[in-house]
Design brief:
CATH topology of the largest domain: Pectate Lyase C-like
Low-confidence stretches: 1-20, 381-390
Number of domains: 2
CATH class of the largest domain: Mainly Beta
Number of helices: 3
């Protein structure tokens, strides 16, 4: 696994559109990110070159894309080399004027923020996409009222928080302080495919705190977080979360209950396909503590100490290398000493779409944990190396850039099933161009994009163990 600035990175597959509106280049057009945002209009892209930008950025209601060169290249090294440093003088990034789902923050290291709420990202009455960032060493602190959301603070927000590394953030104060990594209250955010690690919530929710909302919490690694009193990994209060295919590992409630998950209030807790292992609490229930008012449905999970419920098991998950933050499951087929009992042990109505050494091992039945089930792509900015095999040769698309119509050309050395899928800005499937068996030889398929806006799109080709994604530019 390639190391950059002490973090694990690799080739990542991502699907984003760069708007056909104005692209503002920082620092070539404007010296600071804030000046670029101030000069932008809805739909614009503020593209930031590598460097350290010591400033506190406010979107001021602009529905724009703020991205590093990772946005246009997919090169993960730009994430660690494009730094927004808050210099301990407020939230690093602020959104509080109704920014909508077209607003995107992608490809940065967001660090050294210090605010009462939201040291890294402060988001109130806004619903941006926060993706492919390192959010680290930020603090939410208030001596008398308590600070919330060291890494990210979301209030009345349907934010999409995906594919981030959220590490070493703190929520602290002399009174109740929640959500070292993420604090979310009201509405229904999506928290998906993140590595949430080594965060502290002074009162509770070292990794994630959620209240009065119905979040989707899916395919995250939530590890080594600490809640001083409650919920080292997650603190859930008067919430109805869907917790699917997560790995919750070695979190700690230092002085009280629920090392992995603490859930109170009038909540409906659903946990599926999740591994909860080696969490600890000074009080009751190392893995899960549930209030009497909570209605829990916990199934197809691997829980240390066991738990009643359909499909639940109590068996070592056999992670590959937790010392180096590798929470993939062991499999003898790939040279490991054991087969994890979590392989093919998930809910039978959830399927793996990837079947290889990193994702969805075994059959199509989902694995437990962060690396199996559903539409998994990657967790955080993690290892997902595309292995080239000569049975497929992808020639690319022509013309590129194109105006409404493009041809994709490829060659199959052997007959087999092949799929070619087009994706949009949030990784949503737009169209399956091919999804059937084809003979060997040269092939060409056309895609019509007449009804779509200009920008960068991606097509993904998969045949057997081979898969690859490439971008194409639509210019009208």
């Amino acid at each position: 696994m390639r190391q950059i600035a002490g973090m694990a990175f690799s080739i990542v597959v991502f699907f984003y559109i760069v708007s056909s509106a104005t692209i503002i280049d920082i620092p070539n057009d404007y010296a600071t990110i804030q000046e670029g945002i101030n000069a932008s209009y809805d739909g614009d892209t503020v593209l930031v070159q590598p460097g350290t930008y010591t400033e506190n950025v406010n979107f001021n209601g602009q529905n724009i894309v703020l991205g590093s060169r990772f946005l246009t290249t997919g090169d993960a090294s730009y994430i660690s080399s494009t730094i927004i440093d808050g210099d301990s003088s407020g939230s690093v990034i602020t959104l509080h004027s109704g920014e909508d789902s077209t607003t995107t923050i992608i490809g940065f290291t967001i660090q050294n923020g210090l605010a009462t709420n939201g040291g890294g990202v402060y988001c109130v009455s806004s619903s941006p996409s926060i993706s492919f960032n390192i959010i680290s060493d930020n603090s939410a602190f208030d001596m008398f009222d308590g600070g919330n959301g060291g890494g990210i603070y979301c209030y009345y927000s349907n934010s999409i928080i995906s594919n981030n590394v959220i590490r070493s953030n703190y929520a602290s104060g002399f009174v109740q302080s929640f959500g070292g990594g993420i604090y979310s209250s009201y509405l229904s955010p999506t928290i998906k495919n993140n590595l949430i690690i080594q965060n502290l919530g002074d009162w509770g929710g070292g990794g994630i705190y959620v209240s009065y909302s119905d979040p989707l919490i899916q395919q995250n690694v939530i590890a080594l977080n600490r809640g001083t009193f409650y919920g080292g990994g997650l603190y859930l209060s008067d919430a109805n979360p869907m917790i699917i295919n997560n790995t919750i590992y070695r979190n700690r409630a230092r002085w009280n209950d629920g090392g992995g998950i603490f859930c109170d209030g009038y909540s409906a807790l659903t946990v599926v396909n999740t591994i909860m292992w080696a969490d600890s609490a000074a009080g009751e229930n190392n893995e899960i503590w549930i209030d009497d008012a909570v209605y829990p449905v916990i199934s197809y999970c691997d829980i240390l100490g066991g738990w009643e419920g359909e499909g639940n098991i109590y068996d070592s998950p056999y992670f590959r290398d937790t010392d180096n933050e590798d929470f993939h499951l062991m499999a003898a087929e790939y040279g490991y000493p054991y087969d994890s009992p979590c392989i093919d042990a998930g809910a039978p109505d959830i399927l793996d779409i990837e079947l290889d050494s990193l994702w969805g091992m075994g059959t199509l039945i989902s694995d437990m944990g962060a690396y199996g089930g559903g539409d998994s792509v990657q967790v955080g900015i993690d290892e997902y190396v595309i292995v080239y095999k000569k049975e497929v040769e992808l020639f690319g698309c022509y013309p590129n850039p194109f105006n409404t119509r493009v041809s994709i050309q490829y060659r199959l050395a052997e007959p087999g099933h092949i799929s070619i899928i087009i994706y949009d800005i949030l990784g949503r499937q737009l169209e399956a161009l091919v999804n059937h068996h084809q003979p060997s030889g040269n092939h060409r398929i056309s895609w019509e994009a007449e009804d779509l806006p200009s920008g960068i799109y991606f097509y993904r080709i998969q045949a057997g163990d081979y898969n690859e994604s490439k971008k194409m530019i639509l210019l009208k």
